[in-house]
Amino acid sequence: MRKIGLFGGTFDPPHYGHLIMAEQVYESLQLDEVWFIPTNHPPHKEDAKSNGILRKEMIEAAIQGHPAFRVNGIELNRTGKSYTIDTIRDLQREYPDTAFYFIIGGDMVEYLPKWHQIDELNEIVQFVGVNRPGHSMETAYNIEEVEMPLINISSTMIRDRVANDRSIRYLTTPEVKVIIEKSKLYQR
User: Fold this and answer.
1) Domain for residue 162, yes or no?
2) Residue 47 phi, psi dihedral angles, 5° rounding
3) Do the beta carbons of residue 188 and residue 53 sit within 8 Å?
């Protein structure tokens, strides 16, 4: 049975924190692959600042060269809010001989009680929680914890820096930086 990590998010833009998080889970759980799943319309926050096609392109650019990282655009094809339970059900039907591990940061561990159909979701997928500064990993749900170096980078920080004409060097990959500049993303 293959072991696949699923890493959902807006990735607006993807950054080194995302990549380190995925790598830590990949190594710690000895996964076969990690699939980055950009969401179309996240239920827990405002829509992304850039469109799904560009976010998918940025993720592909960020993970190029990693033999076990992939992008799965399953949620970009949906209209309306995109719920994790629907994604998991669809992937389990399509890949029946695969064990899925849903990767979330500490901020999302705290938010789990508010997730759509969380009790059923907790029964059908293994959550993997990765520590994040300022967030607790304590929860009533079944979470496998993975430690990672504390890297305090966020997509919001990157968008704010671009909007204020500040450098994002060393916060995201050079390839993502080129896409942001070329597409004039996040500028005021």
Assistant:
1) no
2) -60, 160
3) no
Give me the number of domains the chain comprises. Answer: 1
- Determine, yes or no, domain membership for 166: no
For residue 86, the model assigns a pLDDT of: 95
Helix (H, G, I), strand (E, B) or coil at 175: helix
Say which CATH number the domain at 20 has: 3.40.50.620
* 3-state SS assignment for residue 34: strand
Amino acid at 138: E
The rounded distance, in Å, linking the Cα atoms of 21 and 28 is 11
- Token representation of residue 152: 């305090």
In a domain, 8, yes or no: yes
Regarding pTM above 0.85, the answer is: yes
pLDDT, position 65: 94
Helices and strands in the chain: count of H runs, count of E runs: 7, 6
pLDDT at 80: 80
DSSP states of 64-102: TT-TTEEE--GGGG--S---HHHHHHHHHHH-TTEEEEE
pLDDT in tens, 66-122: 999 999 999 998 888 889 999 999 999 999 999 999 999 988 898 999 999 999 999
